Amino acid sequence: MAVRIGVGQVLLMLLAACTVMPTKDPLLSICMDAKHHKTKPGPEGMLYGQCAPWKDNACCTANTSSEAHKDQSNLYKFNWNHCGLMPSKCKRHFIQDTCLYECSPNLGPWIDQVDSSWRRERILHVPLCKEDCEEWWKDCKDYVTCKENWHKGWNWATGTNRCPWGSICRPFSHVFPQPKDLCEKIWSNSYKYTTERRGSGRCIQMWFDPAQGNPNVVVAKYYAWKKRTSPAWMEDETPETDKALCVLPWPLLTLLPLILLVLLERAVGPMDAGFCDCSPKGHGSNCSRCPTRRAGIDNLGLSVHTGHTLQ
Fold first, then answer.
1. Distance between CA atoms of 111 and 208, rounded to whole angstroms?
2. For residue range 206-246, what is the model confidence (pLDDT) as tens digits?
3. Are 173 and 179 contacting, i.e. CB atoms less than 8 angstroms apart?
4. What are phi and psi of 196, to 5 degrees?
5. d(C-alpha 87, C-alpha 142), whole Å
6. Of 5, 90, 220, 242, which residue is least crowded by CB atoms under 10 Å?
7. Residue 242 to residues 21, 104, 110, 161, 236: CA-CA distances in angstroms?
8. Residue 106 vs residues 38, 193, 200, 207: alpha-carbon distances, Å
């Protein structure tokens, strides 16, 4: 008895052979190539103080997290107290900023290449949540500083940052009139001020409760999707949360044309079996010559409609 295999069965066979392989987005869960970052994120048994929320998946080490809390740490020899003692309510925001920069594995969509002696990558235009930026400015507005851009232009003659000659210390509220000025200018546009709020899934949070999970994971996925799908960063579509790639094994791919040919031969019959016109117009001519072909066509779920011929 001839073997009949329908199109549906063929598809099932191909799906059974299909291997589902998850794809890894290169913008997600990564560490930047910088001075103190790990090569890849991972759990840390203990992170110090304000850096603790990142301990489950961190780009920083325990030592880096500890140094981030010092007035003049060994990380960058940077002195927060360059214009007098920085109030603790202000300093905590700079510590949190350092923890985010050093520890977060969710800044991939904003990593930018740089040509620097101490790092190859930096972050640029990270969308900071409205509350984080405004609270930072509010708690620091009465502190004084001599510079708008803290990335460069310091006097490093003593081995630590000091105000440039001729500069004067002024209140933050004068140097940075608005929260937007502080967040965007202080670190050369590392951050971008947004009107998005915490929990929106559209802005990075410096502050979050680790017991509720890291909200920046979702934010990074969203912006990674936008970066992948449109150079213009479209606003109106919803990202796919999970993607997988269905791949046929290579040996099967090479044999696929032959397999399909054999299956079609068995299902439809020899291609030289003749032409059948079983419609009323054809008066059933030649139908008796290709019963196998006819049966195969029926088995494939195809029908010959009145007035049309199948070739």
1. 22
2. 999 999 999 999 999 999 999 888 665 444 444 444 444 44
3. no
4. -75, 145
5. 9
6. 242
7. 12, 21, 21, 46, 19
8. 14, 18, 16, 14
